Each structure stands twice: as C-alpha cells, then as structure tokens.
Amino acid sequence: MSNIKSAIQELKSDLIEFARDLVRTKSYSGDEKEIILLIEKKMKQLDYDEVIMDSMGNLVGRIGNGRKVIMFDSHIDTVAVNDISEWVHDPFAGVIEKGRLHGRGSVDMKSSAAASIYAGAVAKRLGFHKDKTIYVSCTVMEEDCDGENLKHLFKECRIKPDYMIICEPSANKLVTGHNGKAQIAIKTKGISAHGSAPEKGLNAIYEMADIIQRIEKTSDALLKAKPANGTLVASKISSVSESLNAVPFECEIYLDRRLVPGESQDLIEKEMNSIIKGKNASWEIGVLNRTSWTGKKIKYHPFHLPWQIDLDHKFTKTCFAAFNDSFGSDPDLDYWDFSTNAVASVAMGIPTIGFGPGEYKLAHMINENCGISQIIDACDFYTNVMNQL
C-alpha cells in the first residue's frame, strides 16, 4: 500500500496537469478527435504495452498479457456549454481554485480518465500486471449512446474483460448498480387540412393533448410510489404539417423513462399501451442515429434494464479490499440513478462496479468542478484494484 502511495505521489503533479489538459480540450459528443489523440500520446509516453483505436474512435490502452482481464472505462465526451457567461471560470481553462479543478468534464468524467490512465502506469511500474491484462479505455459518444461505444470496442478489438470498473463520478464511493433506461417516441396521426378549414382535418397536436396529460399523471404516480419506482419525463415534442397554414397530420413526443430494480420490459409495454389507449397513436423505442468523429454511422437502441452486482460476488469483495487498502476503512456504497456504459458490460455478463472522483450531481451543471484530492485518491484505488485482482 505504501509503495502505491509513494509512486502516485511522485506522479501527482503530472496526473493533475494531465487532468487539466483534458478539461482544456473541448470534446463534445461526436467531436472527440483532438482529445483521443491527446490521450493516445499520453498512454504511449506512460509506456503502455499497446494502444489501440477502433473504427468508432474509441481508444484502449493495454498493460500486461495475463490470464485475468480487467478494464477501467471512462467516456471522454461531454455535453455542450451553452451558457458560458454564467460560469465563474472559463469552462475550458482548467482552472484550479481552492483545491478543485473547474471546467466542463471535470466531473463527467475527465478526472476519472486521468486517474485510471495514470493508475495503469503506476501498476506497471510496481509490477502488478505480471499475471493479468489491464485495459484502460477512453470511449466516445456516451452522452447520447451509452454502452454503444463499449459494444463496438469489445467486438472489433475482440476484448471481453473478466471484470469491469466504470469510472463515472461517485464521490469515490463504490457503486453497485444503476437504473435502467427506456427512451420512447409516441406518435399521433391526424388528417391534413387548410388552416382556414380545420373542421375538415384532424389535428395531431390535439390528439396528443390527452396523451400528454396521461404522461404527466403517470409521472406523478411514479414519483409518489413507495417503494420508489422509476421516473418519466417528456423531453421533446414536435409536429409535421404541410405548412404553417395547415392542420398538422403528425405529432411526436419523446419520453425519458428510468427504471428501478423490479421494473421490467413487460411493465413498460403495459404502461405505454395504457398511455395511448383509445387514441390514434403508436409508440416505439426511440432509436437514435449518430455519426462518430471518424465518420462511422451509429444506431443506438435506448432500452436498458437496471442492474446490481451481488455484494457477495468475489469482484465486489476484491473492490472492498482495495478500498480498505486505499482509504483505511470499509467503503460507502451508492447506486446511480442514471445510466452508464455499464449497460454494455452487464449485458455481456461481466461483473461490474462503479467508482470515480467527483460529485455526480455536478455533472452537466454550470461551474462543474472536482476535488483534486479525489482524483489522486481515485488513482490510488484503481491501482489497488489492479493489485488485488
């Protein structure tokens, strides 16, 4: 344990400066080329055995070539900054003030990326890689297409880890699971007519009005349910008409439905069927089409069930032991109410734990910032997991 802390102490300044460099490098989803190349260069400088980029633009560094395989994943894309005048510090300046790194991505999740990349370097220096293979991945387009990046990386690079750490922010608590997600599109159909003769048509927006009220009632019921159920949010609405002078013949509303343990695909199907009952409407999982920075076309099906690892699983116990070595105490446990790249590893049956620096409620927020000490401590924990495995 003392060797790990000493090795990290020697690299601490470089680690924090690299985290600042990552924050300084704008990397909105679909435009991550610059930051991926920066990370590729850093991994090579840190003597990773191999650094691979797939056709989607994800990057993975490898250390060791042993039988046991573990991966640490951080997505390096961020949401956009549309309110820069409201930030205390330039969100792309990497300012450190009062022991905290400020800027877009400092929490979600460039501090984690820096910590895991340097943990790999420390593990190699200390010889922790001799009987195992350690992968550190930096993935793209997670904000819109969580898990699609890892699915592609696993398939193209023929990687299937035995164990997975998702380095999303958790304030350095161990996270044992997270909510599921269903993104759903509801469409109503109408009949087009000239705006001067609306009685000759059927307005698809009016057809949607009752559905919106049902969505709101369902949302309220979920929020009041005990024990807690998931959430439902109407996040976007649009209509289609021949012109601004015509009755709309189609209206679409997009829903974000979060699922908690115990909620199933069958439950969601019944819920949506009830919401559109008696209306000229249909619903489906709202497939998203995106293009990665490499030009690769991505189709994302946003339906994922919730998951939670067993506290008695041997990997959970390994992480408990690593936490104790790093912090001198048993871990606080948490459960994310959002979705992450873990949907890919869990779907493949890979034991998965979450852990990362930064308070996740600061993600996507104005004045996003992360404690420097948490970045260093996260590096310590990641290295200890590499050692304990």
Helix-strand category:
alpha+beta
Discrete helix count: 10
Which sheet architecture does the biggest sheet show? Answer: 6 strands, mixed
- Strand segment count: 19
The CATH class assignment of the largest domain is Alpha Beta
The helix/strand order is HHEEEEEHEHHEEEHEEHEEEEEHEHEEH
Regions with little confidence, pLDDT below 50 for 5+ residues: none
Q: Can you list the strand order of the major beta sheet? A: 1-2-6-3-7-18
Q: What percent of the residues sit in helical stretches (DSSP H or I)?
A: 25-40%
Q: How many domains make up the coordinates?
A: 2
What is the percentage of strand-forming residues? 15-25%
The Cα radius of gyration reads 23 Å
Distance between the termini: 14 Å
Shape: elongated
What CATH architecture of the largest domain do you see? Answer: 3-Layer(aba) Sandwich
CATH topology of the largest domain: Aminopeptidase
Q: What would CATH call the homologous superfamily of the largest domain?
A: Zn peptidases
Query: What is the average of the pLDDT values?
Result: 96
